[in-house]
Amino acid sequence: MPLIKNTVLLLKSERSEGTRDKYEDLLRSNSFEVIQVKTLSFQYKNIDILRQKLLNPENFSGIVLSSPRCVNATHQALNKEKLRELWNAKANFTVGETTHEEALEKLGIECKGKETGNAKNLAQLIIKDSPNYSKPFLFPHGNLKTDTLKLELGKENLEVEGVLVYDTLPNPDIENDLSKATNEFTKIPEFVVFFSPSGFRNSIPYLRKIQDFDLMKIVAIGPVTELALQEEKLRVYSVAKSPTPEEVLKSV
């Protein structure tokens, strides 16, 4: 079964409508062929609850946005002008560069944390200024969130007030999409990049239909995704330290 050199299969969630994929752009500009398959989709909820909390920023030290979906939910809850007016003076944080850029573009608010790639690193950044925070952080999140942020901040008596704003759903067409991407499971991309544990779990049963699946070099985004791969006894070729196009390029 042929291994297609310099080809990268990106297995990631759906991107925001009307936006270019920076991972794909950077890889292609460095002479890689890129195949992308959507592993997950998202269903938003509790936007009214989030709106009420956003209208009362005096109850919070700031907002924590851990993914672009959290930014989208916040954008749905309150318009950019009002968010900037109410929240720009707060201590706001994001995980990673993509979320940081979307928060600036869609919400108009400045956030720290773009250099952090996971919740534990973000917690350490927040803790550095813990004496300045006497109120909880507003934390819109998805149904698959971990308790890492809450537990790490809790060690310093910092609180988060969570609002469940989206559910993560598997792409119902993923088997067909992967079949098309691999010519009915007969062609093997040299690299496969898993962006999240949930995306990995939704796609791995179908990827294993490729006879020589173990020839692919597996790249994990972050330590949590790496752990999910290791639990399935898969050999990880490399780990991107943070969810950025530059780190993915270094890893392939």
Secondary-structure topology with pairs:
Blueprint: E1 3-12, H1 22-29, E2 33-38, E3 40-44, H2 47-54, E4 62-65, H3 68-77, H4 80-87, E5 93-94, H5 97-107, H6 119-127, E6 137-142, H7 148-154, E7 160-170, H8 174-181, E8 188-194, H9 197-207, E9 217-221, H10 222-231, E10 238-240, H11 245-251
Parallel strand pairs: 1-2, 1-8, 4-5, 4-6, 6-7, 8-9, 9-10
Antiparallel strand pairs: 3-7
Pfam families: HEM4
Family: Belongs to the uroporphyrinogen-III synthase family.
InterPro entries: 4pyrrol_syn_uPrphyn_synt_sf (IPR036108), 4pyrrol_synth_uPrphyn_synth (IPR003754), UROS/Hem4 (IPR039793)
Please characterize this protein's 3D structure.
The protein is α/β, with parallel strands linked by helices and 252 residues long. It folds into two domains: 117 residues, Rossmann fold, CATH 3.40.50; 122 residues, Rossmann fold. It contains eleven helices and ten strands. The strands form two sheets. Strands 2-1-8-9-10 form a five-stranded parallel β-sheet, with helices on both faces. A five-stranded mixed β-sheet has the order 3-7-6-4-5.
Briefly note the CATH topology name of the largest domain. Answer: Rossmann fold
Percent strand equals 15-25%
The general outline is elongated
Give the CATH class of the largest domain. Alpha Beta
Total number of helices: 11
* Secondary structural class: alpha/beta
Largest sheet descriptor: 5 strands, parallel
Mean pLDDT: 92
Structure described in brief:
This protein has 252 residues and is of the alpha/beta class. The chain has helices at 22-29, 47-54, 68-77, 80-87, 97-107, 119-127, 148-154, 174-181, 197-207, 222-231, 245-251; strands at residues 3-12, 33-38, 40-44, 62-65, 93-94, 137-142, 160-170, 188-194, 217-221, 238-240.
